[in-house]
Amino acid sequence: MANKNVMRYFEKYRGYMEDRVRDGIEQNRKGYGYITVTDASGAPVQGARVKLRQKRHEFSFGANLFMLDELESAEKNARYKEYFKDLFNMATLPFYWNGLEPKQGKPRFTADSEKVYRRPVPDLCLDYCEQNGITPKAHCLTYVDFSPPWVPDDVAETKRLLEERYRALSERYAGRINGWEVINETLCGNERNDPKAFFRMPDLIEWNFALAEKYFTANELIINEASAFLWENYKYDRSNYYLQIERALGKGARIDAVGMQFHMFYPEREAEDKAAFYLNPKRIYDVLDTYARLNRPIQITEITIPAYSWGAEDEELQAEILENLYKIWFSHPAMEAIIYWNLVDGYAAFAPQGDMSAGENIYHAGLVRYDFTKKPAYHALRRLLHETWHTETECVTGADGTASFKGFYGDYDAEIVADGKTSSQTLRLCRGGWNESKLTIAD
Fold first, then answer.
1. What's the sign of the alpha-carbon dihedral 230, 231, 233, 235?
2. Which CATH number do you get for residue 36?
3. Paired strand residues for 261
């Protein structure tokens, strides 16, 4: 039975949240475009009617692509691809070292590589992304807990092997993947076990970012950290993660973006108490405002919003929570990407396929059920992306051939009708751009 009391902070701070969402989206996600319509000779065309339809967001909305062609039937694989591109314009690709190179010197790059569950190969993922206008992102270069067993517990040798890995990945993929998570979960992870010497070494963050800068010179370099250290253990600019990034930047690390996980990994019996950290708009905005002072864009990199079951009330509550959180994140000026984690139930980490009683499957956090029926959360997100945050409008040029419009940043199809002629062209509305487009009616 859904516990609606987890929504109490959204109700308490409803006015504050609605003001920030409304104003933030209007100021940060929309802008004016200026159009000039001319004929083939370059003369301005008065009275041209320009119909504009947004076809892609500039802002990145994504999920992990870990189940691409990994499902148990051709029908499920086809529906996974269809559902993914229906919602998302960004995909997180698995570059876990132990999955990409389980056998030393034999990386799994190509589509004919041996299968590893939840680890589709990069070439396959990139082909899908490029065919569907989806921006790929790599997760991640260094993640100590997911190192292959053949990596020795020796700092010098680990560094040498990591440099080989960075070099090989940059040579093959730096031109096709812009965003690379350089290091993940250094505030948790390996410390839970017997920490490896590499994990304990001084300047771990700085060393990895220096190596990334050496090989990924023109790419976006991202740091990433687990949810508890962001939302639960938050102490303003004295928070561990904030201080870690601040120190690394001070030592010259080229950290281009700050990644923040948002996995609500806690049992349902704790949901009411945990709401103070994860479902409190005032606290969420405060965390984002604080990290924005680092002057780096922010990404919500991994999102798990549990429903805990396939019950109707639980799923409706999941959808309501998702909608509130996405509005907050999308409105914040520092945000550049929001990435859900598992699209489909039953294929999450640390669990046999379809076993909803094991691993991360227990949260029932997908947007689609195991039988591939869409949950309310899927429909809620689709409404936001394709209806609420979507622009379709038209404008008419004046005597000087110009017109203007306001819309969400992104790519647009433009249909120009003038003097009985119709022309179809495209234009782009960019945050921070001049956004002046010249459209021509051909003879």
1. positive
2. 2.60.40.1120
3. 302
